[in-house]
Amino acid sequence: MKVTIFNGSASKGDATHKMTSSVAEMLKAGGSDVTEHFICFTTFKGMGCCNSLPDEVLMKMIDDIESSDISILATPVYRWNISGVLCAFIEALLSFCKFNDDIAERMKGKKVALAMAEDCENNIVKDAIRMVHRMCDYMKLECTEVFTIPFADKEKIMDPACQDSISEFVKKIIK
Question: I want to staple 92 with a disulfide (CB 3.0 to 4.6 A). Which of 8, 47, 78, 115 is the partner?
């Protein structure tokens, strides 16, 4: 199984990064081929202009979505929503799908899962989930699973209970 993780965190080593590292390790241990993109540390051009085409970096990410069995959008939850970094990435994808039928066709039916590290209760993630579902609806993606770690911090991610939750998420997405 090929899995691509798009990490929307603004820093490496935070709770979201620890979460995606655990997900990637578990997937690899099960024989999956895993690619991870740290969106914050990636520079891509062509966002927002209706007649522009994605540059090589963004095109590689689009190719990875297309060739993956599932893509995971990972994000911390900031102010009841996904990170600005992940939002910008989603908006770039939406822009290219809206104005480029070839890219839109390549995205159709691809599976996406959402993984969130939040610093509050589960009920604050509803807006974040709605945004990702709107993107999936528009791009005709299939959102297969939503996973949240409430009250997440770097240390908590490694707790056995949290690792068990991550393991259950991994089992669900590889079905």
Answer: 47
Q: Contact at 8 Å (CB) between 2 and 68?
A: yes
Residue 1: count of CB within 10 angstroms of its CB: 13
pTM: 0.88
Task: Give the lowest-confidence range in 25-34, 36-45, 52-61, 156-165.
Answer: 52-61
Strands 142-149 and 2-7: what pairing?
unpaired
Longest dimension (CA), the chain: 49
Question: Chain centroid to CA 32: how far?
Answer: 17
pLDDT over 90 (residue 27) = yes
CATH of span 2-173:
3.40.50.360
